[in-house]
Write a structure and sequence with these properties.
homotetramer; about 300 residues; alpha/beta; 8-stranded parallel sheet
């Protein structure tokens, strides 16, 4: 059931901001409508690419409610419920339930040093607290613990979690997870979060992709997923190479790190493409300006997205 | 001014919980009153030892308001305003301002990968948002970035920050910070967070200590600080050795990590000493039980705190 | 030229030991002959899987000389010249030159904290010291620095290095390297060291694989490489899945880490398959025994390699 | 016995090089004689500060033999026997035994991923291989594993190791080690390797210090140690502050990291002071030049060592 509902291309939607750092609703409408028109299979709102960690609770609610309104049931809507520990995550789940979403996406606990006992307790408590499907957002670069294959499968077999978005960068582990999942009757929907190696994830048997780069252009990812479903690997590879060439926008800016570079590049490209109004980033991140904007534009020109 | 106000022993007060994980107010009263009677120079509420990351916003408010009421102005009250990024931290600052505190304590941003530009922007934004003194909680094990000496001093000289609690475990850096601070006319109040090497921090010129272990027994730390102010180094060393012997309670539990071990040991000791009612820990942490309680008791007996 | 010479399946040959930890020559002969009969395109001797770090200089020389003798020119022979810093690596290059090999494989400098200036200087100095092709062994888990794409390409374009074995586990970086290499006219031969995601590396455009698991059975890797050259991706994927199932031998042992588990599993499997005499590991590693041997055997039975 | 023999100030002697990177013997004589005249209690040769990882076996032998000749029995001579794994370390022990030293100093195994079983096996094998006292060089920044207090004490109580040089930067662990050692009857001689927090280590009960900075000027460390033995803590603190001010030479150079900065600053200072001929560093490290030399000189002038 999960696997039929959640699959394919589910971009983590960026949060367009006005210059005074409020949600820019008209830009958000253009962005979401464009994604759905490009054929995505779902929307993931309030993930890392949405600058979720930078938004206070009220802003989180506004972003999610507007996404819900704009999407209007066209594709499944997944909500990030990212916070330090269980009780705080449950608060966000309550907010998501009130707004109405199709699934929630939670990381392992972070800030405090944490063991696997805590990780397991955490997801069990989230599952008990909601009837929504719970996805694991496996992102050790942010939470500094990896959810191991064995624990992921234990939680999957028991129906505690519905799937995972793997942003671990550990493709060896992803292969092992995909094998174990298949052997267990595929209780989990498995998504990769790594834009430039989706072809490898599909070779491993991934159910889909959550590509931040999909904000800028989801067509490659949609074409890649369709080719994958048909077993047309040559197209998978070709489309992946195109997406990888575009992904160089995140390596183009200089003197910036983390989401200031990555999400900053996505927003800058979207602004250059006329989809969103500004490339403003949340405090305390610097917004890309001057030469860095030009570097992003240069990549867009190289791949033919900009004249 | 800062240095005369904030100095000495300022324990990060643990949050006693009932078995159903609400704030246990009578236990909290006994704990805070005992600390003040033992002679502490301030109270730090909603820090890591308070399980701040595990408390939702409402619980945070309750903990802080009760601490305010119980303290009743006897000693300076510092409030942790710990959250992922600037906007969320400012929300907590607003709450702290409404309740009324003497200073706020914030970490560097966390969750997202972050550079020093963001760290600097972050503390500048916090300073602009409040007239309260802002302390840096330098805790790379939780936030995965260290605030370097140069940036700390830059923010100190400009009056952006009032001081820091150094929980970095990097005593070389602390020495350099203390030297640079002295050379700049001591704009910062410098506290160490490492219970067993406070003597070394005093040799470096620390203004005080924020000892989690002080919850269990603050008398050594108070005696050590007084001796330090008099230049009685032999007493400093002797008291430090006593405190270090007691600190073995955090290494005693087996099969637990992070605050489940450390704060868990503090709470278990406080329960064994009759100060608080239960040693219950927040979800998703396991609470110490059975053999692990006995291991903590054994250390208490060894140092003569328990019969 | 390099790309025509070095490509395909080049296993890092394990070093069979007698129970008193000398090179077991008859076992070594059986192992190398079997690999060549299974169709490998080269042999990599004195890499991590050869326990190179555990062998003194005399043992290194014996292992390499015996490999040279047994191979007898049938396939290209690559020699690891792994040591802490430049001068020591050059000593090993001299030894390899005297014995006679087709290429040498060196890591970035290790032990001392090192910057990219040192990494660049290091490979330039190695190139100046020898006329043999120099391959970069990119293995941050051992040397704690990653050779970045830009530096790798700079050294490749200038002819300083001939290629790399990527054991970084960073498939995003590998994709970027493959793209950059293609754009530069493919000066580098690119090998992946990760046994279970070779299909993804081929999608990225890898020239081959250096699979430790190939010691146990190279037939899947040989079939996978041939299918890759023909564009038969379905076979690539199927063969990869088979190899991944066998690779579970390295996750089977309990209570051991690093090469004691990985190389230990390879040796144990080879012993169970009758290829080598003992599964003895170098001091100070524990050799797999009892239950751990049985766990490896169980995987071999599951995949049909053992009756 | 050990504790009476090995104690006090034992600098890790840098290796002066000629511009063509051979041992500069006249400079080495001046350096060693000056250290002994300044009152050091021993010499540690072939440690990290000696650029041991950069020297081939022949150079190592020459450095050690010259140190032996120059010292001529005036103070105890400790030799680093640093290499990746047991068998290679034993080769260096043999060399040290032939030349004749008073103790050998070995790190935990490195390069390969290693568990505590291997660390324990390693030191047991070294002890079996020699009758010389074996010191543990605990330096996780280089070998990426820390020798925990429990294992250190187990090896100490059994007489496997004679002591340790703690360069872990973990002063909490050092305190715990010192406490455990005292409780066990002080089987271990405990040295700190951190130049700017030796006062704290003495408060913990250290037996001495191995200060790289002592190469530049050992007089502060000698005075500090003497004051420590007399319980004159005020002098300990004052001398430490002076040494810490001088230590800023290692933070002065820009654009260099690791020993290229640290040992580079020591050598540059020694050259400026006329003790050694050149500040040449081993390949592949850059040698400090131009502005960076001036930055080191500036610190020397500030503390009054240079006119």
């Amino acid at each position: 059931m999960m696997t039929t509902k959640f699959h394919g291309v589910i971009p983590p939607v960026v949060t367009p901001l006005t210059t005074d750092r409020k949600l820019d609703v008209p830009s958000y409408e253009r962005l979401i409508n464009r994604l759905i028109e490009q054929g995505v299979n779902g929307l993931f709102v309030l993930g890392s690419s949405s600058e979720v960690a930078y938004l206070d609770d009220e802003s989180r609610g506004r972003v999610l409610a507007e996404a819900k309104r704009i999407n209007d049931g066209r594709v499944p809507l997944l909500a990030g419920v990212i916070d330090t520990e269980t009780q705080r995550v449950i608060s966000h789940i309550r907010q998501a339930e009130e707004i109405g979403v199709d699934a929630v996406v939670a990381t392992a606990p972070f800030y405090a040093v944490t063991g696997l006992t805590e990780v397991e307790n955490h997801f069990r408590a989230l599952h008990e607290a909601t009837s929504l499907p719970v996805f694991v957002y496996d992102i050790p670069i942010c939470v500094h613990i990896k959810v191991p294959v064995d624990l992921m499968m234990k939680l999957g077999r028991e129906g505690i979690i519905a799937g995972c978005k793997d942003s671990s960068g550990d493709d060896v582990s992803f292969r092992r997870l995909a094998m174990a999942n298949r052997a267990a009757g595929s209780p989990l929907s498995l998504f990769t979060g790594h834009e430039v190696v989706v072809d490898g994830a599909y070779m491993s048997g991934a159910d889909g992709v959550v590509p931040g780069l999909g904000n800028v252009d989801a067509t490659n990812y949609v074409a890649m997923y369709k080719a994958y479903r048909k077993g047309d690997w040559e197209t998978v590879r070709t489309e992946q190479d195109k997406a990888a060439a575009l992904m160089e926008i995140v390596n183009a800016p200089q003197g910036v790190v983390g989401p200031a570079a990555g999400v900053g590049a996505f927003k800058t490209a979207l602004q250059l493409l006329g989809v969103i109004e500004t490339n403003t980033m949340s405090v305390p991140m610097p917004t890309l300006t001057g030469e860095n904007v030009e570097r992003v534009a240069e990549v867009l020109r190289r791949v033919g997205l900009l004249a």
